[in-house]
Specification:
rod-shaped, 1 helix, 172 residues
């Protein structure tokens, strides 16, 4: 077995040299890639840095304006809410007053209609009642006069009896 050891040492040395070349190639490849990445990062940093500084400047300038706008909007909402509450209160009071006035007007109108109805009944009783009585009295007198005339005439010349009139039932 002693004769094979130099061969194994030679193979190991060749493998070691080969590994060294591979590691050197990898080192130079990683170094070149790292330099490219550094250049890309520097280029990107050079391009993004002005954009970031400009955005920072715009935010710095617009932040007070945005705060003022939000504050103003909050005040407007507060004022609008208080005005809406006032309008609601006024409308509620107005509607309550209108209801009271409508109830009052309804009571006045109902009372007036009852008074008119009562007045109509009173007029009927005071005017039509005596008129009906007077009409009945006049008919009674008329009937009595006709009866007297019929007694004075001779019995042959008596006038035929007047036809029944619908007003005869009104005679008292």
């Amino acid at each position: 077995m002693a004769s094979w050891v130099p061969y194994f040492v030679l193979i190991t040395a060749v493998a070691f040299v080969l590994q060294t070349f591979i590691f050197a190639a990898m080192y130079f490849n990683v170094k070149r890639t790292s330099e490219q990445m550094t250049r890309i990062a520097n280029d990107l940093h050079g391009r993004i840095n002005p954009i970031i500084s400009r955005i920072d400047f715009l935010i710095g300038e617009t932040q007070p304006r945005l705060i003022n706008m939000v504050t103003d909007a909050s005040e407007v909402v507060h004022i609008a809410r208080s005005q809406a509450q006032k309008v609601d209160r006024v409308l509620t009071e107005t509607l309550d007053r209108m209801r009271i006035q409508l109830v009052h007007a309804d009571q006045i109108l109902s009372g007036t209609l009852e008074y008119i109805d009562e007045a109509g009944s009173t007029v009927r009783r005071t005017l039509l009642g005596p008129v009906q009585h007077a009409t009945a009295v006049i008919r009674g007198i008329k009937t009595g006069l006709e009866a007297l005339r019929s007694f004075r005439r001779p019995s042959t010349e008596r006038a035929p009896a007047p036809p029944d009139t619908p007003d005869e039932g009104m005679f008292i």
